[in-house]
């Protein structure tokens, strides 16, 4: 299973489309963790699984999304409903309730991945307004039966080596 994960693009259209187009032949699924500030039918979100962020208005998107791909259950939420800027505990409870092996979230604009209680948590950062780093980031999660790798990229496609994680 290979997933492109992006979040907090805050109205960017062409840049979002470029990222998706760059990886369209190498990933199985596209995930946007909210705050796209676009409508569900927008050209840049075609074929992308999107959840609603605190800056997304209307009822276009679900608050959370769960999918099982190749025996991997992925849980996606924006994170604002779980207070992710302060703690990951409420998010971890929800991910465990959903039986997720991977939990994706945004909201904080802080890129990073970690593992806790056999769940891998992934925040792709932001391609518009990153925090704690200068790079505008997204990531690709590649999972096999023996390893999960989360590779972070700058918006232009350059790998951010020090953020890459293996679990």
From TrEMBL:
Protein keywords: Metal-binding
Domain Calcineurin-like phosphoesterase: 1-141
Highest taxon of source: Bacteria
Single GO MF descriptor: metal ion binding
Pfam families: Metallophos_2
E.C. number(s) listed in UniProt: 3.1.4.-
Transmembrane segments: none
Enzyme class: hydrolase
CC cofactor: a divalent metal cation
Listed PANTHER family: VACUOLAR SORTING PROTEIN VPS29
Similarity remark: Belongs to the metallophosphoesterase superfamily. YfcE family.
Record's protein name: Phosphoesterase
